[in-house]
Amino acid sequence: MTKIAWDETGKRLYETGVKNVVLYKPGENGNYSKGVGWNGCTAVNESPSGAEATPFYANGIKYLNLMSNEDFGGTIEAYTYPDEFAECDGSTVLADGVTIDQQSRKVFGLAYRTEIGNDLVGTEYGYKIHLVYGALASPSEKSHSTVNESPEAVTFSWTFTTTPVNVTGAKPTSHLVVDSTKVDPTKLAALEAKLYGSETEEPSMPLPDEVKALIGATA
Asked: Who has the most CB within 10 Å: 53, 146, 174, 190?
């Protein structure tokens, strides 16, 4: 028998930061291609909703709980955004250097990385790659104020909701997470080459079934 132990050396894990943010536009075949780096992204806040219990009663007692479907959404915060995101934010080019707002918003995919740290090596312990599918951004407030003795850069913020994509053998999902501490390094490198691009292929975001095939099915 094994006795439970708490706070063992090397197992005091934590998660922090966001980096390597990539925007993907969906292609005609449903895949996410044409990935571009998102500079200046300061936060991706995940805000799942739903999964609420509705109780049912019989004979004066609680008979069962039925859970509603879960929805994945959140907010993106950044100092700037890639030109390719303009369509996702309801803008379109009217002429060279001229854009107009209040246009149809385009769906997008998003990839970002968070760091995993522990008590021995800090944030060099590992990381998680998050893939978000079927995201749709909502209009957001943009505040512009005069420059003064304490200047601040304008921070943009977008709330987004998602539409799940199909997953073989599981319910549809909008959010997939790859943990570098639990994935074979060679397979992880192959996934990153697809996500971030290489000398032989353009950056693209694989769907969950493709990730499963690339990383390997659960034993």
From this structure: 174
The separation between the first and the last C-alpha atoms of the chain, rounded to the nearest angstrom, is 25
Which positions ≥6 away from 59 have C-beta within 8 Å?
none
Domain ranges in the chain are 14-181
Question: Tens of pLDDT along the chain (219 residues)?
Answer: 789 988 889 889 999 999 999 999 988 777 888 899 999 999 999 988 888 889 999 988 999 999 888 899 999 999 999 999 999 999 988 898 888 988 999 999 999 999 999 989 988 999 999 999 999 998 777 777 778 877 788 889 999 999 999 999 999 999 999 999 999 999 999 999 999 998 888 999 999 999 999 998 654
Structural domain 14-181, CATH architecture: Roll (2.30)
